[in-house]
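Q: A reviewer asked whether we had any structural model of the full assembly, not just the individual parts. We don't, so I'm hoping you can provide one. Inputs are below.
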Amino acid sequence: MSPHQLGPGADPPEPKAGELLQTIHRWKEADYRLVIGLSVVFTLIVFRLLALAIDVRTNCDGLSADAGWVAAATCMDIYSPSGSTGRFGGGSGGNVQAFCADAPGYLLGTDRLARPLALTLIEASEAFFEPALLCCAIALFLGTILGAIAGYFRGGLLETLIRFFLTVVASYPRLIIVIVAIGIFTAGLYDPGRATRLRLAMISTILGLAYVPVLALAIYQKVGSFQREEFVEAARAHGLSHTRILGYHILWANCAPVVARHFFYLFGYFVLVETSLSWLGYGVAPPMPSWGNLLRGCDLGPLLSSQFIAPVACILITILGLQLLGDAIGDHFERGRK
Amino acid sequence: MTEDLESEVTRRIERGTEDSVLLARDVWVGVKVGSGVKPIVRGGRLNVPKGQILGLVGESGSGKTQFVRSIMGLSSLEPGVFSGSALYRVGDGPPIDVLGDIDAYSPYSPPPGGDGMPVRQRIGWGWVLWRRRFRERLDALRELGVGFIFQNPMGALNPYLKVGTQLMEAVRVARPNASRAEAEEGALHWLAQVHLRADRETLGLYAHELSGGMAQRVMIALALAGEPHFLVADEPTTGLDSHIRREVVGLLHRIMAQGELSGIVISHDLPMISRLCDRLAVMYRGRIVEEAPIAALADPESPNHPYTRELKIRAEELSRGREGSIRRGSERSPDSVDAQLSGGCPYRSRCLVIADRLVDPRLCQRERPHLEWIEEGQRVACHASERDLVGLGSRRLVAPSLEERDGDV
Amino acid sequence: MKTLWLIGQKVLNFLLVCLGSSLLLSAFVWISPGSPGRPRLAVDWDRVALESTRVCIDSTTCGVVAALPPAPYEEASLLIDGDAAPRQVREDFVKQPGPQFASWFFGTLWGGMITGALLTEAGDPAVTRMVEAAQITLPLVFAALVGGLVLAGLVVAFLTWLPFPALRGVIRAFLLVVSIAPVFVLGYLLQKQGIVPHAMTWPVLTAACLVLAVGDGSLGEIILQFEHEVRKLRSQDYVHAARLRGASPLRHMLPGLLLPASAISAGKVAFLLGSVVIVEQHWVLAGLGDASLLAARDPADPVLLLAVTVVVTAVVALVALLRDVIEIVVDPRLRRTSSEAR
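A: Here is a predicted structure for the entire assembly that you could use as a starting point for your response.
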């Protein structure tokens, strides 16, 4: 389809400027979204695997960094479930940084708790990787089933009930319902580690459930549009069961782009929510790192410091990459079908 | 009788002495394909003499709709038209070139006469200026009074507004100072002209409440209400039932037979074209391959272009009810990309002239034929001689079918 | 009239959704093991079965009824899990699931909300608290919604006009990246420009509104949806036909733009009400989001949580109702009756 063809009787090749443009056009044809998205996902997986080996609290010559971040902690507005900062108050300023300045993890400097920033960023991927997968799994599973059933068995009580239920769930703002759930289930826990794990589980479950209406509606519309076409009637006439038609022909063969798009979008949205909640103090509590709680501090410091830019860059690149990947995969699925 | 006559005619047109309402020359229109642009109208030309109706014929995909819409400002502008001129005669003044100076405003212009030429998208502030001038010229064109009947009536009627509202708006195009009562009266008048029930109830209908035939007639009324001197009908009967089609064609005939109206009818339905039009232009893959008076359609001994001949054969077989051969014929030879891009005649892969060995195939492969005058008022783009083209017709007179032709090639 | 009937249906739908959402959440709160509930109702001791009815008195203290009190039933004796000695508990701290849920839901929760009898942990009526908080949050959210739509409209109009396709792509990408930033990051950036959230002044409110309209991916989504709708609309033949007639194409495009705008709004309101939680925290505004955060802190205040959620879901459902009404009014195809010609 390139307009640039040479053959007998055609015109002489165009001037140099045009050739350069043609080259750029050819590069542009590669889907840059796919490239960016896949590299982001690859990096996240690498981070997660590295995080298994990293524990920033004890990385520095076996010296616990507790002393260092205890001092900084009095400055930070750390939310403690017990309502008091008794465990972390006071303490002298440590000079952990002076000891550890040569270690490789200090490439980007330290964060506010005197931990090596680079390693902390990597370990923070623990905070969202599996919970996001859980969240997506819940949303995809329930959303697909509900949407498919509602779209396929139209016109009955089942469809009306499912749609009403989905509308009700969709009317809760997702972040507020997550906070409500956190408030109900995790208040009264004293151990920050356990509290964090429970909160993350809560966030992923509730966010997954809250996202179900979005996915279900998309699948409902898609399945509904197929229902109108004749091939469903033809397949029934051939004796295929509802399950086979719905499961294979409609969902597997045709709804894959929708599901793929929503999967990656939800993963990115989970990162956003987890980061925001950790920043608020209702998510991952220190000393467990998260890109969100790395950004929380009473004294922000200069804007161009790596303490601010590095976590922000991580968040932006991750969410952007995931959204681009979702779009690209969705488009490729659709194009492959045409 | 070749280039001299053509340039003479062109000079006469430019001087305003030739009696043409529309003269379009060397129009190239492209669409965006992937990251590039593909031309779908290549060097298109049209000449609509005053008071006459031109029939633009070609199969679907030949670019006829895009061509006419582009020079009337009805299609998307990017990339859209990237070369050419379209002169309209408005009143007594000099003709307006709607696409004027388009090459001057675009930083990249194609080399003239090339095939498979690299086409680039418009960029630059020059394009903004050209766009504004284009719109201004289209506004000036409205003095001519232009009406367009769209192919899909449901798409051309605003689904959110009542039919009456849209009709009254169209009436106000011709009579800007009409009061509400006058506009309503005009709307009812035009409804009656298209044989619809002319009452308030019809005015209060919405587009989705109309049947296909009713919607088409409302659209014709909308086009006529502006009291145009130049009317374009784009596939006016596609998708209609046969009895509605007859009515619509009869209606159009009545309208177009009135003296002052010039226009274009775009269609692939030859019987309708021969009923409604005075002149004929045949388009194949973005190029005009024949211009002729309408009598050339009915005349079996007319030296038509082989593609026109193929269309006539198909129409004949369709009217005799032999649809099978037509479908097979069209499936048999999809045009290869080579034919488009390597500079020869684009029609050569299905050409009867080559099949009958009237012309050296290597000539057709090497050189693209240009439009040449054959008879008075008739131009054909083919390497075969006039005698051979006439002979082609007479040999095919006795109900040939494309099945017989299969044996040869 | 057909229109009124359709609108009435949508209003009924709105009421049902409000009811359904508060019911769902209240049931959730009621049955969750860590939730106090605190209905403060009279316990029906006749229905209590010894050693099988499980009751909870606070978030971590549950047990079975060990001994019934003598009439007039002021105190019961509960065997707390893991603790052998039964404990005396007062009647109003005992929760009975099941039939009392209905009276709690309609009477205490809704009745109390409306009459002001329902109190939060802090002691003030939930309804006044909600009204005060809503006065801050709702204008903020709606201003952000309208501002976001206007901003996106301007951006899309500009991008459509721009004759440089490459530049168009760059601007669009830049805006998407900025929009993806979480709201607190944008807040920090503005803070560095000197807009410090120390008081509720106009610059602070404007900044909060801007951040809300742009951040968390909100603006990016609206721009993408708008571009898609405008592209679809410009290719419609009736717009071309109007231009040919000399009529203003804008007048013909307006209904076609109003419908997606209202649909986008209905979707965005829920999203913005979520993001506003963070914005309020950052810019120190005492709105609904801040109230929900306070309620979720330990010890949790379920009444406040429920009240906030009820208000918020009512707002979302109301905007959805508005969208439905606009659709019915603008699009005649929805008013089609069976008796009309096809």
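A: Points you may want to mention in the reply: The two ends of chain C are 20 Å apart (CA to CA). The mean pLDDT of chain C is 80.
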